[in-house]
Amino acid sequence: MRRALSEILALLVGDPQADRLVPPTGFTARLTLITSGIMAFLAVFALALSLAAGRLAERWGDELSRSATLRISAPAEQMAEQTAAALRVLETTAGVDRARALSEEEQRALLEPWFGPDIPVETLPIPQLIEIVEGDPGYDADGLRLRLQAEVPGAVLDDHTRWRRPLVEAASRLRVLGLLSVGLIFTAMAAMITLAANAALAANAQVIVVLRLVGARDSYIAKAFVRRFTLRALSGAALGMVAGLVAVWFLPAAQEDGGFLTGLGFAGAGWLWPLIIPPLAAVVAFVATRSAARKTLKGLR
Amino acid sequence: MIELDNVAYSYGGGELLSGISFAMQPGSFHFLTGPSGSGKTTFLKLCYGALVPTSGQVRLFDRDVRTMSRDDVAMTRRRIGVVHQDVQFLDHLPVADNVALPLTVSGRAHLDELANLRELLGWVGLKARADAMPPELSGGERQRAALARAVIMSPDVILADEPTGNVDWEMSQRLLKLLVELNRMGKTVMIASHDLGLIRAAKTQVQARVLRIAGRQLQLAGADL
Fold first, then answer.
1. Has residue B145 got a pLDDT over 90?
2. Which of A35, A51, A261, B82 is most open to solvent, judged by the fewest CB atoms within 10 Å of its CB?
3. Which of A286, A281, A295 is nearest to A227 (CA)?
4. What is the 3 state secondary structure string of A133-182?
């Protein structure tokens, strides 16, 4: 552990003389910078996607599971009686926080989009709705159904599970997909940095040969290249991450009733997640360049 | 310092060198000659540990090349200066930095060593070219820069592979003079060359022995050259 730390420290401090031995610029050098930048940029979006999907799944799961509706269909003269009976049942049910029959105005508002404002609701055989807000822990839906069946034959309990489940499932899948893309992007980033490092080492084969011939140790040569590439990947990924964060920042903010797309972004501590991208890119570059340099050196005596 | 004991080397096909035994005496001056493709470069590579013999034993400073780790090989290279036939430099660094490269990679590039560097560049006549980039150098300048790089660590042995291969007669005389001077300072020198005129010229300045590779064998050539 201590050795690894001192190695990292030496890598950060560097040896200005060793640094000069690796040609400063070149196509592959810029390629590494650009590649890690682009991949970091994409990784920010993949992270935003999976975090947003996660929040969505939680929110949907949460909101929907905490409310349910009781629908009472009864002849008009029994409606009030059955509603009162249902409320009594609900009040004595463990796990129900509160239950409230919707007023006529509220029901009218619910129907308005379909029937228009002037519909005489009171003359229609409309079922009475009771809003149930679940407590914590929740109630036993099946038990409640049985009790209602006995006491309020016209009541139908709709706890939303039927349409909640596929939505929550979809959001969780989306989160899995987002995480999968993060994984894939990181893998692709690792592969690209490895390829760029290999290409750069191949382009600098002469440098390695010369250094070896004048008596440089393997570790010295490897370090000169590893440092260069690690810093390059780190700075490229940092630039890409910042660009990605700025882009996410300027996405339209999530709205209360907004769909999924407007919620894409980071929230709260989620903004810290992208910060792991540059160090991760650096670690990948470190490992990739080191093994590539060692492999090249193995071919030389 | 460099000993070969019944050494053979093959690149995969037939043997290029076989049954070679040779011990380099400190302070000696050797020429290595033979037709092109006879194995002069291979012989030198065996001498500085760039190749491991297919059979037999090579000892560098009393260590068997086969048992040497990669770091040992690197350390040995700091004690054996090599002027390569196709000398390579770091093209993005000026001549002075290239000459000082062995000091840099061994962590000895201090100020007092850098004073030596200036002196060394003056000795090979490259003081005015210290800031030039290697690709700007002429053939003779490259060879002299290579020689300076080979000796900057003050090695015990200097091996030169066709150092006068693509320079004119005057320049080859200059290079020879530098190598003879090094030998007078006590360095062991071996030059691979098929330039008989150069060897004859050397014989007037230094007591040089001529080794000849012929028919895969190493022979001591007579004084009749």
1. yes
2. A261
3. A286
4. EECCCCCCHHHHHHHHHHHCCCEEEECCHHHHHHHHHHHHHHHHHHHHHH
**Nearest in space to B31 (alpha carbons), one of B207, B175, B150, B185:** B207
Q: Which residues of A touch B50 (CB under 8 A)?
A: 301
Smallest Cα distance from A299 to chain B, Å: 12
B92 to chain A, any CB pair closer than 8 A? The answer is yes
**C-beta separation of A36 from A281 below 8 A:** yes
Chain A interface includes B78 (CB < 8 A): yes
Domain count along chain B: 2
Chains A and B: how many Cβ contacts under 8 Å?
64
Q: Can you give the three-state secondary structure of A103-124, one letter per residue?
A: CHHHHHHHHHHHHCCCCCHHHC
Cβ atoms B211, B221 nearer than 8 A: yes
Structure tokens at B154: 């003050």
CATH of the domain at B68: 3.40.50.300
Q: Is residue B126 domain-shared with residue B160, that is, in the same domain?
A: no
**What residue of A is the nearest CA neighbor of B71?**
A217
Is the ipTM here above 0.90? no
> Has residue A45 got a pLDDT over 60?
yes
Tell me if B35 sits within 8 A of B212, measured CB to CB: no
- B71 and B97 assigned to the same domain: no
**Residue range B123-146: mean pLDDT, rounded:** 90
Question: Is residue B86 assigned to a domain?
Answer: no
Strand partners, B10: B15
- Identify the domain containing residue B149 by its residue range: 92-154
